[in-house]
Amino acid sequence: MTDLILTAGTVITMDPARPRAAAVAVSDGRIVAVGSLAECQAALPAVAVTDSGAGALLPGFIESHGHPMLSGIATMAPARSIAPWDAPTWADVLAEFQKGIAEVAPGSALFFNGFDALLHEVAAPTAATLDAIFGDVLAVVADNSGHGVYFTTAVIKHLGWDVNPPANPVGGSYGRLADGSLDGTAQELSAVMSVAMPIMAMLGGNPLHSAMEFFAVMSRAGITSASEMTYQDSLKQGYEAIAGMSNTPLRISLYHVTTAENCGDPFVSSVSDELLTKGGLKLWADGSPWIGNVAITFPYLDTEVTRRAGIDRAVAGTPALNYSREQLDAILDRYAPTGLQMSFHVNGDMGLDIVLDAYERALSRHGLLGTDHRWRLEHVGAGRADQFERAARLGVGISMGPFQFYYWGDLLDGEMFATEFGSQWQAFRDGFNSGAVVAFHNDGAVSPPTPLLNIQAAITRRTRSGALRGANQAISLHEGLAAETINAARLLHRDSLVGSIEVGKLADFVELAADPFEVNPRTLAADAAVLGTWLGGSRIDLDVFMGVSKTVDHSEHEHLRAHAGHAC
């Protein structure tokens, strides 16, 4: 590693003791001085000064909740993205379907990720719908939420389910016709993966390369640390391989799914834990607001939008819960003594009450109240101020998803829910006011990795259309930056290493085109665009990183295709 003194138009440290600086001195991958140029030259007197050319240098952005490897495999070639930001209309989706049909090799299959009934403005497909498009082609269409999947009759026959339809797995379900046969739909992780895994395994291509493509996408968005929130041991070899590559752009924290019997075991790897570490365990309390299976106390509206999306108003609430309270208690009792963080996907306010009840019981029973346990809540779309305050009292952190508000806010407010609920979705101001540690995430590939756009949405409370909704929930720019840097590092239990520009921490930086405090908040993401990132004092060269893919024996990673998919 080369020692250096780095300058920019301004250095925003996210360190309250010294919020701004002119330069940063780096030695052996760590920060050794922050302050004036003279102070940094005194720390490294023989080192030349490097002008980054950036308008602002900040600590690298941190994705507190993501799925880097699985998102790459599910959205990059040979898989195909039909997410609304790639294929905005149903006509665009149909065009992608036809392109896939024209290009699919004999004996292979097609996998499309990103269908959204709400944003594509069309009902979720069934086997009957897809058969009319794909005929006998093995085709699977994954819901953008990660909580649903749709497939052709050819897939049903390929899996032998036309003769022996499977029973619903624990935590998941299959859609069925009146006679009990499958209708070509499935919901929740266990059922979704039973369909996706065998089809993904048939796609061919280089799955590690696909994963690396998404790593590069995240890096271009300014991200230097991320989490894998659906980790299982089948992904270990791939993550280790990427961590060992030249110019690897991300540090990864793994959160093991509790459906894996060995999820409580320590993580052992030859890779430095600065690059790859196990942070905790992942559970799902409810499902997705976009397909209607969230545990909420208030109803979905009966509108053209919710009817077209196939949202069953009877499912929202208690039926949407993935565990009984007894099951939650048993899981937490089993794993609380491991010292691993608990991390709960929960969108609905009803689900959040139940999770907080279970958390409080387990934290008390296992002597963790008042300790630095860092247990977490994920998404909390319908979370209320009193719930966030309770989380703060319990020492529980909150990872919020501004993307939910940005992309779906116009539908949430008045089309899906009454304004009193929909306009308050992703209640950022209440989260910060509670005193809890609040971080932001994109949950790739549920939305593109865009930390600056997350901040823009949270400080302006403006949706993708530019509409102002729930203005009372806007936060400050400083709070938004903290949510993507130091607060996210705290949620990952990595704040001793990253998240701010301070002496002793790793030299992970993001270069921005302008000082974010000097641009129009409504155009923040464009005006303060990401120019590049640094990891451990080295500027990341993504061309070098992606070029390494050509030298890797991808046959060692073919198994990754069979484990693709994500669940937020």
Characterize this entry briefly.
The protein has 568 residues and is α/β, with parallel strands linked by helices.
Molecular structure report:
The chain is of the alpha/beta class and 568 residues long. The chain has 2 domains: 78-204, Diaminopimelate Epimerase, Chain A, domain 1, CATH 3.10.310; 210-497, Alpha-Beta Barrel (TIM Barrel). Helices cover 32% and strands 20% of the residues. Helix 11 (325-335) packs across helix 12, helix 12 runs parallel beside helix 13 (385-394) and helix 14 crosses helix 17. The longest helix has 17 residues, at 349-365.
List key phrases describing it.
568 residues, TIM Barrel, 2 domains, six-stranded mixed sheet, 21 helices
Query: Which segments are poorly predicted (pLDDT under 50) over 5 or more consecutive residues?
Result: none
**Superfamily at the CATH H level of the largest domain?**
Metal-dependent hydrolases
Mean pLDDT: 95
Could you give the order of strands across the largest sheet? 6-13-14-15-16-17-18-19
Helix coverage percent: 25-40%
Number of distinct beta strands: 22
Rg, Å, rounded:
23 Å
- CATH-derived architecture of the largest domain: Alpha-Beta Barrel
CATH classification, class level of the largest domain = Alpha Beta
Span from first to last CA?
37 Å
The 3D shape can be described as globular
Q: Structural class, from helix and strand content? A: alpha/beta
Largest sheet: 8 strands, parallel
CATH topology of the largest domain: TIM Barrel
Number of domains: 2
